[in-house]
Amino acid sequence: MDIARRAGVSKGAVSMALNGLPGVSEATRSRILEVARELDWHPNNAARALSAARSDAIGLVLARPARTLGVEPFFFQLISGLQAELSGRRIALLLQVVADHEAEIAVYRQWWSERRVDAVLLIDLRVEDTRVTLLEELGLPALVIGGPGHHGRLPSVWADDARAMTQIVDHLAGLGHRRIARVAGLPDLLHTERRTEAFRAAAAARGLDEPRIVWTDYSGEQGAAATRGLLGSPQPPTAIVYDNDVMAVAGVAVATELGVPVPAALSVVAWDDSPLCQLLHPPLTALTRDTFAFGATAARSLLAVLDGGEGADMEDHVPVLVHRESTSAPPP
Amino acid sequence: MDIARRAGVSKGAVSMALNGLPGVSEATRSRILEVARELDWHPNNAARALSAARSDAIGLVLARPARTLGVEPFFFQLISGLQAELSGRRIALLLQVVADHEAEIAVYRQWWSERRVDAVLLIDLRVEDTRVTLLEELGLPALVIGGPGHHGRLPSVWADDARAMTQIVDHLAGLGHRRIARVAGLPDLLHTERRTEAFRAAAAARGLDEPRIVWTDYSGEQGAAATRGLLGSPQPPTAIVYDNDVMAVAGVAVATELGVPVPAALSVVAWDDSPLCQLLHPPLTALTRDTFAFGATAARSLLAVLDGGEGADMEDHVPVLVHRESTSAPPP
């Protein structure tokens, strides 16, 4: 073994030191651990089973740029809700930000082989998602946030995005709008795709014009740019639905700047409600969901899995559209 | 050993199973792990040294109600900034919400004895803080967010709250205000105490009236109640400084409701800037700091400690007061 050679001790001494057994001096033990650290030594899977009885941690890997997380209240309300349930059982949350799904999968493999987590939460499900198959193969207990469908045999907790979107289109069509546009989130996310399908289907059912959709990365910058593009087009929409609150607020700012008053000339709907939506002038019509409660629900479902249950699929409440002052009849 | 008796096997078999060594059948091994799990068995400290070479996790314990975290952008911008630096080294963040400092200390003891983390971040420092002494005793590497002072031999990263507060008082005094009040955060936090001292000293230096201070839990509800109390008093203040953005926004809403126009009859300053401050009507004069960058700075300092360094104390940039439309001269 490399560690023994480098530290100038016997293999037996290394084994005793790494296993925390008596028989080596504190100085030797320190030296061995130091060498092990230098070699970036990882205990193998079998040895890690030592700690496998319980890790008391749930894993959450976020494959999004770290900078965008601070402005997305969704994740942290979700995490707060999760911790509200998990902390009572003294279960911690192991959080890791990665660049992409490939890196995410590597983290799952490592965490599970080292039994760092008892289970993981899978978020931002894609239409074709290799992570689901991998987790099933590994046997790493997991709960999918966002369903139904496309989550294999893994249990899932979700809200009905399609019904929520239909509510929004019905509200706007009821006010008399016929040209509705949508500023959407990342196109390869399953929930974006679900909302898109529901958006088109609801518009068609109401006999509205074929709706335009612009995809973004959820940032205020891209929300503003999308709004500018839509309002500058030959036949601008009379209503825009935004996939989050940050983009809706940026959209209102752009409309105001362009001399397009909200709601007189443009109605605006935000998917996620927030203090920002409520305190803006005008306050925004927004889709309200209790993400904290959703996180707590997910935690309970996950605890059931940890306690040996099957993990039932669960549908959370459908988000509710709160009518405020950013939506009205379109200009005549 | 209880596990051996319960599983009906020898102690040797238990040891082999828990240490992942050959010599027991897979079925026996499963049974032993199952029993260990039922008994909520934790490996002892010495055995945990097996994984001590590196845990690749930083611990963060939050002794605040989980529900309030989702509305406090500070923590999550801090976490985003931390992860931006740590994820490049594949270091995860182990997050745990607890009820109080006693529970927090118990978590540190457990994490360190089991080598779950390589280091921890200590936040919300108190004037008298037993956690500092404990971490020094344990030898658990730690970085204190918030200094200088009161952090023993532990390295600390901080921003100069006193100078920031002096900026605010100078701005208001310069506009002609003489009755300034403050809606503060939790009274036993060190940074609340620092701001209070600086607030009183700056007011005295400018020859202002003895300023009134109301302490709260940072929530919008308590911010609103404090504002109602101040504005309903015989000699209401002409300016209020709030310790976070959520309370400042709630304060503006209360003032508007009471027929006290902002800024004509009441100037308002928010400690933390946010999209909420910028997009509110009127936009709020606010103290801007880049919490994401602060988190990244803290992470770099922590990595230096992990790499065997001493961990230098570091002062971050002083937050900057951005003048917007919520502050003006007091009514004549």
UniProtKB/TrEMBL annotation, chains A, B:
- Report the residue ranges that make up the HTH lacI-type domain in this protein: 1-52
Which SMART domains does UniProt cross-reference here?
HTH_LACI (SM00354)
Q: Which UniProt keywords apply?
A: DNA-binding, Transcription, Transcription regulation
Q: Which GO terms describe its molecular function?
A: DNA-binding transcription factor activity; transcription cis-regulatory region binding
Signal peptide, first to last residue? none
- Check the record and name the CDD domains matching this protein: HTH_LacI (cd01392)
Highest taxon above the source species: Bacteria
Protein name (database record): DNA-binding LacI/PurR family transcriptional regulator
Say which species the protein is native to.
Answer: Kutzneria buriramensis
